[in-house]
Amino acid sequence: MGDLWLLFLLPLSLVAFHGVKGCLDCDPKFIEDIKILIEKLIPPEVPGRNYLIQRQIKETIHISTKVSYRDKMLRVLDVQNVVSLRSWLKQEYEKLGDGKWKGVFILQGKLLEVRQNLESKLKETLKTFSEVACSEDCIVTEGPVLDCWTCLRITTHCFRGEYCGEDSKKAESREIALFLILLAEAVVFGSTLLLFHFCVSHRRKMKAIRRLLKNYLEKKLEELIRMAEEKKKKESGTRR
């Protein structure tokens, strides 16, 4: 039965893996540097320190996945601006490391302030670049461009379609439709498996019942034959 539930939940698990990256988490070395800087900021005696560190890293790195402008998700940015944002963030954390913060709550407040400033700078940078790169005049950009959702560099310097974003409502409607289709397929597939499992189990039970009934009838028949033979012997003995 466990295998059946695993097969039933498999289509839903595909939806769970759907997601995108962000401009900041395309460089493993940068992520490691941020981790080291945050670890230096949070004292060892803080309760739940490891969880706090991981949460701070996640909230910092994935800020770019939430940035939108005019109902469009911003996706492309030149590599030079990405490097500048990363350098700025490192400098901000280094400045925090030079201060003396009494209490983890004050430190978390300072970290939140840095993330808010980062989100503002990232949004403005992505918006400015998107307006230039995706303009109707198709202005040519200089230097390599990063696709933040795949971490791949793009050779073309003039963008259209998905790279320039799209109406979030239409995208959301498509995602909902896809989810409902996958959910319906999962329900149908799971129901078929459960029905098959029920039929197979029922068939096995009926076979077992028929086998027991057959054995019972055979024993009863043997008893009746034996009783008839004993009665016949008694009658023949009485006549003699």
From TrEMBL:
The keyword tRNA-binding does not apply. This is Izumo sperm-egg fusion protein 3-like. The gene is LOC102816355. Residues 1-22 form the signal peptide. Keywords: Membrane, Signal, Transmembrane, Transmembrane helix. The chain crosses the membrane at residues 176-200. Pfam families: IZUMO. InterPro entries: IZUMO. It comes from Chrysochloris asiatica. The lineage of its organism: Eukaryota, Metazoa, Chordata, Craniata, Vertebrata. Belongs to the Izumo family. It comes from the Eukaryota. The keyword Endoplasmic reticulum does not apply.
